[in-house]
C-alpha cells in the first residue's frame, strides 16, 4: 500500500496529505495520510453556531489545553497465587473521558497570508485504535495499613495497596499523523475517519517513519518466512529420509527372515531325509513321495504330507488338503513315539 501512495497537494489543503485511491467501484474510498497540528473546531470555525463546538478541555491537574481527556482510577491490590506467590493485581474503578470536535490544521508557514488555514476534520466516534495520549498526571494514593491488612496477608487473602489516579490528554498544538478514510461532511468539508483494515489511525510518527517501519516489518516477515520455510523443508526432508531408512531396514529384515525360514526348512528336510527303502509305502508324503509324513492339517486332521510340503500347501493360493480338499488353516508337526 505504501508504494501506491502518491504525494499530492490539492488547492484547498494547506498541509501535507498523501492519497491512495481505492478502486472499489461500490464505495470509492480514499485512504490518505494527513499530518497537521491539533486544533479545536471552534478555533478554526469561529462563526459556526453549534453547541457541540466547545473550546478546549482543561485538565484538573495540568495547565495544558486538550481536545481529548481520559482519566483512569485503578484499584491496586496484592493477591496470593499458588504458583507465583504474591502478585500485583489491578482493577479499574472509574474511567471517564471527555472530548471536543477537533481538526488537523496546516502550519501557518505553508499557507499564504491571503488564504485561510487549511484543515481537515477528525472523526473519532466509535474508535477502537490506540491514541497517542500524553500523561499529565500520574499519582498513587496508598491505603494506610492496619492490623486487618496484616491478617489478610497472613492468611493469603488479597489486601489493598492503594489507588492509582491517571490523566492522559491529546494536547492542542501537537503535530500528529492521521491514517484513514477521507470522506466529506454534509456541508462538504473534508473529514478523515478510521479504517478498520488498518492497525493505526492517529500516530506521532511521520509518513517517512511509517514507510520505514512498514518496510522493516515487511523485510522481517520476509526473512521469518524464509527461516520458517527452511525449517519446514528440513523437518520434511528429515522425516522422508528417516521413513525411507526405516522402510529399507524393514525390507532387509523381511528378506533376511524369509531367507532364514527357507534355510530352516531346508535343514529340517535334510534332517528328516531317510532312505526310501526304510520308509513304508503308506508313510511317504503324497506330494513329493520323498519324505515321511510329519505334518497334520488343521482342521481336517489328515497326516499326508511332510513338513515342507505341508507348509507349501498352507501358503499356496488354494490351501486345501490333498485328500479331502477341505480348506487348511494351519499345520501341526507330529512326532512318532
Short synopsis of the structure:
With about 325 residues, the chain is α+β, with helices and mostly antiparallel strands.
Describe this structure in words.
The protein is an alpha+beta fold. It has three domains: 165 residues, no CATH class; 33 residues; 58 residues, Zinc/RING finger domain, C3HC4 (zinc finger) (Herpes Virus-1, 2-Layer Sandwich), CATH 3.30.40. Helix content is 26%, strand content 31%. The chain contains four helices and 14 strands. The strands form three sheets. It has a five-stranded mixed barrel with strand order 3-6-7-11-10. A four-stranded antiparallel beta sheet has the order 5-4-9-8. A hairpin with an 8-residue loop joins strand 1 and strand 2. The longest helix has 66 residues. The radius of gyration is 45 Å and the shape is elongated. The N and C termini lie far apart (95 Å). InterPro entries: MUL1-like, SPL2-like, Znf_RING, Znf_RING/FYVE/PHD. It catalyses: S-ubiquitinyl-[E2 ubiquitin-conjugating enzyme]-L-cysteine + [acceptor protein]-L-lysine = [E2 ubiquitin-conjugating enzyme]-L-cysteine + N(6)-ubiquitinyl-[acceptor protein]-L-lysine. It comes from Ceratodon purpureus. It is a multi-pass membrane protein. GO terms for molecular function: ubiquitin protein ligase activity; zinc ion binding.
